[in-house]
Amino acid sequence: MALANGIRDLGFTRRSLKILNRREVIQKVPTDEDMVFLSRLSRIWKDTEWIRESVRQIRSKARREKLVREVELTKPERYVLNRYLNAKGRLTLEGVASEVFYYYGIPENVARGIVRKMRGRVYMAKSRRSRNDASCKPS
């Protein structure tokens, strides 16, 4: 329990620790060496200068914007968002909700809420984009 509190005090989430473990940076049950590493990493983890420099290394402006736009979204939400943004034809709420159920195992009634939320976000993004395109055209 003290170990979990120590890691929590450093500002790491369970998800970030799973990522570090999956990449074999730390062990599943962190050793003393892992704790020293995590302590040092926590000093720069949330530093805006470090984050800015890390994001700057992504060369594509579109990829940087996508990262920022989708940073707080879950995997199913990102799936739905990209499904609507990249759609060639018309998508139905039920169809996309059933895809979310199939790929992520989320009940369809919950998936419908996710689809509605992301559909609204796509609508706002597209209308914002068309407004910006219209304001850039010479009169």
Radius of gyration: 20 Å
* 3D shape: flat
Count of helical stretches? 8
Which bin fits the share of residues in helices? Answer: over 70%
Question: CA-to-CA gap between the ends?
Answer: 66 Å
* Main sheet attributes: strand count, strand direction, barrel closure: none
Overall number of domains: 2
SSE string: HHHHHHHH
- Structural class from helices and strands? mainly alpha
- In total, how many beta strands? 0
The share of residues in extended strands comes to under 5%
Q: Which stretches are low in confidence, meaning pLDDT under 50 for 5 or more residues running?
A: none
Mean pLDDT across residues: 86
Keyphrases for this structure?
139 residues; mainly alpha; 2 domains; 0% strand; flat
